[in-house]
């Protein structure tokens, strides 16, 4: 039986990122994580539980928990309800990365 060749994390990541759709999935996961973190920070500044935010935003506590953990990318209406519940502005922008 031949010995299996070990792959380090960098090699594995590079190979996976080369697969179709991998980069897009990575970017979606990053966005979900960043949005969840921002909402969690605002909720914690208010000293609210997830249940309190959920009740105020018309959601379930489990939906808030999944969102804060980066497990889902919410729709714009859901982001709007979360922002309203947190007395925050929702600012969605598309900006150029460099001067054209």
UniProtKB/TrEMBL annotation:
PROSITE patterns: HTH_CROC1 (PS50943). The keyword NADP does not apply. One of its GO terms (cellular component) is cytosol. One of its GO terms (molecular function) is DNA-binding transcription factor activity. The keyword DNA-binding applies. Pfam families: HTH_31. Signal peptide: none annotated. Keywords: DNA-binding. It comes from the Bacteria. SMART domains: HTH_XRE. Residues 39-93 form the HTH cro/C1-type domain. This is Helix-turn-helix domain protein.
